[in-house]
Amino acid sequence: MICLMRCPVNKQTVRSILLAVLLMLFLTALPACRSEERRAESIDPLTNQTAYLASAQERAWSGNLHFGNFVIAAHDGLIANTYRQQVALFDFDNYTEKPVYPQPGSQFATAGDWIYFQSSQLSSSLRKIMTDGTNSVRIRQKPVHHLIATDDRLYAIDATSGQVFSMNPDGSDEVVLFEGFAAELIYDGQFLFVCGSEDRTGLIQIDPETATSTRLLEHRVTSLNVCGDWLCYADPARDHAVFAYNPQQQKERQLIDLPVTRPFVIHDSFLYYLDTSRQNRLKQLAITDGQADPDDSVCIIDDVVDVFVVLPDAVFYRRPSDVRIYRVPLSGGVPEPLP
Fold this sequence. Notes:
Elements: H1 2-6, H2 11-35, H3 49-60, E1 71-74, E2 77-81, E3 87-90, E4 97-101, E5 105-111, E6 114-119, E7 125-130, E8 137-140, E9 144-149, E10 154-158, E11 164-167, E12 175-178, E13 182-187, E14 192-196, E15 203-207, E16 212-217, E17 222-227, E18 230-235, E19 241-246, E20 251-256, E21 265-267, E22 270-275, E23 281-286, E24 298-301, E25 307-310, E26 314-318, E27 325-329, E28 336-337
Antiparallel strand pairs: 1-2, 2-3, 3-4, 5-6, 6-7, 7-8, 9-10, 10-11, 11-12, 13-14, 14-15, 15-16, 17-18, 18-19, 19-20, 21-22, 22-23, 23-24, 25-26, 26-27, 27-28
């Protein structure tokens, strides 16, 4: 205090002190600002099962189809293969395993009390079975992918011909809806959307009630996702950047200028994608006002991910050459294996 009173004050010193104080205040406020960033909200299947199943169904008809819905929600729990390669029901409480089918399945779909899946042990035939493991029936001999189930109809792509077809839940009344070679198929509850492996297929909208189709885009797209009134996809011709298209407005906009070469899932305005530059770590990126900044992405699975699906409370994934399924909360955390 005596020195300050007697010594002349240097303006440069005062300026430096003020800048240092401001910097400290900024650094102190920074964590608080980051804590206000939008985070993925989880739905608890035990306390809000109706909302959970509705949200899960949207993903089962959309982005999760690209990975065969290898974990899918049903009324009584989750349907998936155990590490012993048997179809099982895992209850929502503590994921206790209940056997459903003694062999592994793929391309899962659910509607009501029924599970639809492809049996890889029986010439890839399509089967249905109730969630309690009863009434197992083969409903189709030929293999399929992108299988979608509703209470009244099933929709899928024939793995051999590439045709999109619909049929009754018992396998009868099969009707071809698209005769080209489809690569992907999704459903928004009213229309089916199809894209192929060639530019000439483009993006097609199909009304399953009338079997009429409309071409929305004239170029190839991949990783189709339903995002409210918009369809999201990657465009291979534009370095796999992610775009959104509104069929009603016939309007396209770019969501993110980032090459996303592997299939992705959009859930609750968050993009979940594999970062191929980091050995397929799974990242989560918030989409705000139709835009997303790659610098804001968060790594929620620091592991090598082969396939994944997003459910309203967690992400489930498998590692390459590993049949075991792991669960990670939407906010990230330590992977926990299913039984």
